[in-house]
Amino acid sequence: MQRIITEIERVAEMILGNTESKDDMPKQPVKSVIVSTIERLQHILFPGVFEGGNIRGASSKNRLSVMLEEVSNDLVTQIALALRYDLKYKNSGQEAVDNAALDITRNFISKIPVVKEHLETDIEAVYNGDPAAYCKAEIIISYPGIYAGMVYRLAHELYLLSVPLIPRIMSEHAHSVTGIDIHPGAAIGKYFFMDHGTGIVIGETTVIGDHVKIYQGVTLGALSTSGGQNIKGIKRHPTINDNVTVYSGASILGGNTIIGEGVVVGGNAFVVKSVPENTRVSVKNPELQYKNNQNVSAYVELDQMEFWVYDI
User: Fold this and answer.
1) 178/207 same-domain check
2) Which neighbouring-strand residues pair with 290?
3) How far is the C-alpha of 265 from the C-alpha of 216, rounded, in Å?
4) Which among 65, 67, 184, 280 is least buried, having the fewest CB atoms inside 10 angstroms?
């Protein structure tokens, strides 16, 4: 047993030896607090939906005010921790960091009505576009695309305010819960509909217009990230204009790739060049092979129109 304890101490010393000293390493924002903040913001954005009762009575304003105050207090603390990772604040006094965190939090709180407005258009797009949707409350409570979109829109506002770490913590939490990976730096318009959603990836410099619908497994990504930090800040991801539909499994890649208004991109398409407006893009007609026990093969060519226009 003593040999095990000795080995444990040796490994612990090696790990600590490869880590920055406590004086050099700032404290990190607390993930559990950020996740709790997301939950309270969800209640704020959809009052009465998650509390199990109607809060539109006389006390509704007070209840929302209390939740907003709680969110603000937690955000000020977490943002102050995150700002230590910004070189601009690395050597600043605590008072300057706290004041910056207060200003950022105030600006973020002022954007919540804008986030709510955009989310309401997303819910409208889902309700109008999904015949399986029973009601808007069902969409708010249970649709992963709406949850991921909510977290993205909140994280995006913090991203625009140049808050380190926290926006990505938020988006990766939503990713782990829904399977939808939206970088908080992406710019997404109104009436955004992610149908089913699982496996969707939207990169940092993606720009998406209004009334865009994308299905599960869609990637809006970069052609290459081999340049690493040298290509940081360069537009690496595509631009998707208004009224575009992208079916499942499609990949649209590259910062110079622009998908024109009204385009329909078929399932499993691989697009690395711009597409003019009102174009339909699909892969070449696929061929299915069938074999029976006598090893007799039959080939069936799928009709192109049937291949890329479908819903689930």
Assistant:
1) no
2) 298
3) 13
4) 65
Only one residue has tokens 């090893």, namely 295
**CA–CA dist 65, 74 (Å, integer):** 14
Q: What is the mean pLDDT of residues 189-201?
A: 97
Strand partners, 181: 201
Treating both helix axes as pointing N-terminal to C-terminal, what angle do 31-45 and 166-178 enclose, rounded to 10 degrees? Answer: 70
Token pair belonging to 54: 């109607």
Where do we find the tokens 């890649």? 253
Same domain for 223 and 137, yes or no, is: no
Q: What's 210's domain CATH number?
A: 2.160.10.10
pLDDT digits (tens, 9 = 90+) for 238-280: 999 999 999 999 999 999 999 999 999 999 999 999 999 999 9
Range of the domain at 144: 20-182
> In this structure, what CATH number is given to the domain that contains residue 84?
1.10.3130.10
Statement to judge: residues 172 and 216 lie in one domain: no
Cα angle for residues 145, 271, 268 (degrees, 5° grid): 60
Radius of gyration of the chain (CA): 24
Residue written as token pair 């990190």: 28
Among 119, 120, 115, 312, which Cα is nearest to 217's? 312
Report CA torsion sign: 34, 40, 43, 44: negative
**Structure confidence at residue 311 (pLDDT):** 46
Burial 278-295 (b: 16+ CB within 10 A, else e): eeebbeeeeeeeeeeeee
Clarify whether residues 102 and 135 are in a common domain.
yes
Helix (H, G, I), strand (E, B) or coil at 173: helix
* Counted domains in the chain: 2
Q: Read off the pLDDT of residues 57-100 as tens digits, 9 standing for 90 and up.
A: 547 788 889 999 999 999 999 999 999 999 999 889 999 999 99
Residues 190 and 236 in one domain: yes
